[in-house]
Amino acid sequence: MTLKKIILVFTVLLCQYIWAQQDAIVQLKEVVISDTQLKNFTNTQSILTLNDSVININQSSLTSLLNYNTTVYFKENGLGMVSSPSFRGTTAQQTAVVWNGININSQLNGQTDFNVINTRDFNAIDVRAGGGSVIYGSSAIGGSIHLNNELEYKKKFTNSVRTNYGSFNTFGANYTGTVADDKFSAALSITRNSSDNDYDYVGKDGHNLNGQYYNNSASATVGYKINQTNILTLYSYLFDGERHFSLIFPSETRTKYYNLNTRNMLEWTGNYGRFTSKLKGAFLSEKYKYYDNIYDEGYDYGKSESVIGNYDLLFQINDKIKLNSVFNFTQTKGYGSNLEGAERSIGSASLLFSHAVTQKLLYEAGLRKEATNNYDSPLLYSAGVRYRVSDFYLVRVNGSKNFRIPTFQDLYWQGSGNTDLKPESSVQGEIGNEFTVKNASLTLTGYYIKLKDMLRWLPTGSVWRPQNTDRVRTYGLEAAFKYTKEFNNHRFAFNAVYGYTKSEDETTGYQLIYVPYHKASGALSYNYKKLSAYYQFLYVGEVFTRSDNNSRYNIDAYNTGNVGVEYNFGKSKIYRLGAQVLNVWNADYVNVDSRQMPGINYNIYITLKL
């Protein structure tokens, strides 16, 4: 079925009700978000929400936040360097990063560097495990990370300034401000981070050379209620940064990398009785310059620009049934020192359905089809059921087909690109079990992923070219535990996550490189009136660095942890002073071969809320 036929069918099915059934006007809610599918159509999958209190005690990079609070594993080429995730044993290109409902993975290399995202620029961060290509498109195989900016339409005026200073001349500053009433709402965040990053190696001579970095980011969200049913919202984000890439040996040539990313989106939301309409227009750009010798003026560069149009129509059939159609068109152009003719247009149509049969039973399903000039896209689907057996026990079952498209570098890299590539595709399923008592909860999730046509760069004579070759089978278990206890003015909290991951090449039976079998993390916290203290821990098991699983080159398992304490001063105005000891055990560890991480180091911070 062609995309035109799908759009026609969806439009006829949904729009025939618009003029026939105009219910009474329903006013827009006080809190407005763009990524409504995350709340409405992922009820049968595992979603972890990281709130402000969790974000604030972690370092500002998205790598640090997720490393200590999720089962996602990170390959980090030294502190602050390039950081790539592995979610449920998949690759960095198979993890989608979604900004206010828009997939922002790089069009050049297909992934997101998690060290170029400052978490303090967002007031809501969610981690959704499992397949999500029906909603979010390419890359949502292992899971997706959602960065949202929410607006409130009630009278408020707030300002917050946070500064921190730590070892290695590490400096950070963040300003956030909000102003709103019942018609207008605006939020602003500005962040600056920098570091000499010249830490000494633990247990050996030498220190981190050429590791200095800085970055600046700004996020602005502005909304205006035109009337009781219509609202306009502008989302804008900018990231500007420069990193010198750390050396393994002092004799190596010093390099650096500069990148500039911008995102702008205008959204018109209308609430017309049972129908909620969202029309979005977005422009995304990414640009980098790579200097292979910092003392020379020459550099390689790459750039991509994407124009996105999106129409989202939600039909609330009744209190229990929702039907959502989403139409999207994206046009992207790529430029660069090594890119030839990089351009593509993608049209897609999705249909989502959710039915809460009773208070205990809910099921949902979805379909998506894309059409493009670059590749043949499979029909994607998802379906799931959630059933609450009792107050103590809830079970979730979900299955889906997902995919990842070839990147511009795969298709158009000068002299090596392959325009005949097919998308990677996967079929996967999961079963989740949630157990809840008064002060505690335990979630156990088992999953299975079967991936085919995996893209790899392989030698063809003297030239490396991308090919669809590998088949990968991944399965595992995830566990999440939470416990809280309060009495008088005391509050204790403990949370922990654990992941077991088996991700193997079906041809050889070997575990994929940089996928640990075991990862665990968590935190223990204590609050008394204005005083709070916490301990974070992280364990990562042994990983292979060679595709033949030669144990001689394995990276050893490691334990590390952070300790922090903070105190709130003031009454109407809050002054919060905090101190942290990072890698408190002075662990000697790496998570990428030969890329040493820092030993024990310190950080102090102060937050002023006015």
TrEMBL record:
Keyword Ribonucleoprotein: no
Statement: the UniProt record of this protein carries the keyword Membrane: yes
Start and end residues of each TonB-dependent receptor-like beta-barrel domain: 163-584
Signal peptide interval: 1-20
Major location category of this protein: membrane
Gene3D superfamilies in alphabetical order: TonB-dependent receptor, beta-barrel domain (2.40.170.20), TonB-dependent receptor, plug domain (2.170.130.10)
Membrane-topology annotation of the record: Multi-pass membrane protein
GO cellular component: cell outer membrane
UniProt keyword annotations, A-Z: Cell outer membrane, Membrane, Receptor, Signal, TonB box, Transmembrane, Transmembrane beta strand, Transport
Family: Belongs to the TonB-dependent receptor family.
Name of this protein: TonB-dependent receptor
Species the sequence originates in: Flavobacterium alkalisoli
Record lineage: Bacteria, Pseudomonadati, Bacteroidota, Flavobacteriia, Flavobacteriales
